[in-house]
Design goal:
Length: 232
């Protein structure tokens, strides 16, 4: 199926499989995959390593804002997929830890952090042929994206997915901690003042609680064909 030079924006709740789905979609269509959550995770890791997040979880926003110009985040693609780099250092593994997950929502709620990330997402997406996933891609970052998807799944399925992901990466995981972290992030992501997680009015909803990957891909191809007609 030949897809036009479009932007596919995928938003939705944490651990609904957005990243895996977006990656597969990008690979199948020959598009670039951009993980906007990874950018927020990269900023959070930077803030932690520089000591801008205190023991009580208080973020030193002025210090973070002053230091942010020193941070250079970019994605590199290889046969294993897209990985996030801070300068020459690959930080793909560190940004997925529970330590980063615990603070990424408050960091991503800071307005200057959001504009810093948005600017880079726009620069990375010049020319289209991009699949981007996040929380506000179809509403704020690319409100004119040609295809917008909103992903959801039951809380149980989402917690199990996050738990399996951590275990697979050899990280410590406790199901109750995972559930608590998901609930907290849902709350912060959907109630923050700047760019809260919302479903765009023109987004197609994908509830994949009981769907296989292949079924999801067939579904999205149907959505694209519905919009652009039958594509060769
Ligand atoms: O998709 P993820 O779990 O890696 O995202 C990490 C955090 O970043 C999540 O708690 C919400 C935030 N985020 C955001 O606010 N806006 C985006 N476009 C992507 C992620």
């Amino acid at each position: 199926m030949k897809i036009p030079d479009i932007i596919i924006a995928i938003d939705g709740w944490s651990s609904t499989g957005k990243s895996s789905f977006a990656k597969q979609l990008a690979a199948r269509f020959g598009f670039l995959y951009l993980d906007s959550g990874a950018m927020y995770r990269g900023v959070t890791l930077f803030a932690q390593e520089r000591g801008f997040i205190g023991a009580a979880g208080v973020i030193d926003e002025p210090a973070l804002e002053a230091a942010l110009p020193e941070l250079e985040l970019h994605f590199e693609r290889d046969e294993n997929g897209t990985r996030l780099f801070s300068g020459s250092r690959c930080i793909e593994s560190e940004i997925r830890s529970m330590k980063v997950s615990s603070f990424v929502s408050p960091v991503s709620a800071i307005p200057f952090v959001r504009s810093w990330v948005d600017e880079r997402l726009h620069a990375f997406s010049k020319g289209g042929r991009v699949v981007m996933d996040g929380r506000d891609i179809g509403t704020t970052v690319f409100p004119n994206a040609e295809i917008k998807l909103f992903m959801t799944a039951s809380p149980e399925v989402r917690a199990q997915r996050r738990y399996d992901e951590l275990i697979m990466k050899g990280q410590k995981a406790d199901m109750e901690d995972v559930k608590r972290n998901l609930a907290e992030r849902d709350h912060i992501d959907s109630t923050r003042a700047v760019s809260p997680l919302r479903q765009a009015p023109d987004a197609f909803v994908l509830d994949n609680s009981n769907m296989t990957f292949e079924e999801e891909l067939v579904w999205v191809q149907g959505v694209i064909q519905g919009k652009f007609g039958i594509l060769q």
